[in-house]
Design a protein that fits this description.
- There is one protein chain.
- By secondary structure, the chain is α/β, with parallel strands linked by helices.
- Helix content is about 40%, strand content about 10%.
- A 4-stranded parallel sheet has the order 2-1-3-4, sandwiched between helices.
- α1 links the parallel β1 and β2.
- α1 crosses α11, α5 crosses α11 and α8 runs antiparallel to α9.
- The longest helix has 15 residues.
- The radius of gyration is 17 Å and the shape is globular.
- The termini are close together.
């Protein structure tokens, strides 16, 4: 079985949540059947949002350094559970000796398999500004719809709150508790605001958002009905790639 290298910490809860979902979604029946994973969360990676906003240094050298450390440690496949950081994936991949799995491509492929074609994107401001999903969606016959300015500001505030919430997260039972628990409810409300009136599905593109929206929530209470979770889609793609056909 391939060893997976994960560039995590972008932010920390999103990386931890991704690892948890890999475990929960795995077909493994015992410890020895789980995917070998090397996870590195380096808090010194320069802010992707600041760099893309023109106020900070490029995170690419540090991301390449982390990826190369993962390879030296035995990783045979690299994943980045972060939509914003995926903007840099091509630059990183050019300097890698092992393949990198694309979050953007896997999300696109998963949505194509559904009946939904017009998808609202909830993510960071750079994801909206740089239309991160645009090219991949267009090739697949999908349409990406982004929030209005006011809604985007609220989504950004929620994402920032999750990134700041480490002290309020319980590692004991894995649940998000009072303090940021209500952020998930607000995220769902925003998903069903006026901006998404004409879409038929919503993508939680930023991997901070699945942290606060319970994993069992896949259908919304009113249109748009479908809810796609970038974290789970990436985890499912890795499981298909790593496990032999037919299971462990």
């Amino acid at each position: 079985m391939k060893t997976l290298g994960v560039i995590a910490g972008l932010g920390p809860l999103a990386g931890a949540h991704f690892y948890r979902r890999l475990i929960e979604m795995s077909p493994a029946a015992m410890d020895s059947e789980h995917i070998p994973i090397i996870l590195m969360a380096d808090p010194t990676v320069p802010s992707r949002i600041e760099h893309l906003s023109g106020t900070g240094e490029s995170p690419v050298p540090k991301l390449v350094e982390i990826a190369q450390k993962l390879v030296r440690a035995g990783a045979e496949l690299i994943a980045i559970p972060s939509t914003t950081t995926s903007i840099y994936q091509e630059q990183i991949a050019q300097q890698m000796s092992v393949p990198m799995i694309s979050l953007i491509e896997e999300v696109t492929a998963a949505i194509v398999k559904s009946q939904y074609r017009k998808i609202g994107i909830m993510g960071t401001t750079p994801t909206r500004t740089f239309r991160v999903y645009e090219a991949s969606f267009r090739k697949a016959g999908l349409e990406a719809v982004y929030p209005d300015e006011e809604t985007q500001l609220e989504i950004t505030e929620i994402i920032s709150a999750v990134k700041e919430a480490s002290a309020r997260y319980s590692a004991f039972d894995g649940r998000v508790h009072i303090g940021i628990e209500t952020l998930g409810e607000r995220a769902i409300q925003l998903a069903q605001g006026p901006w998404s009136r004409d879409v038929d599905g919503i993508l939680l593109a930023c991997t901070e958002l699945p942290v606060i929206v319970p994993s069992e929530v896949s259908i919304l209470s009113r249109p748009p009905e479908a809810l796609f979770r970038s974290t789970d889609i990436l985890a499912a793609a890795i499981i298909r790639d790593v496990y032999p056909k037919g299971g462990v």
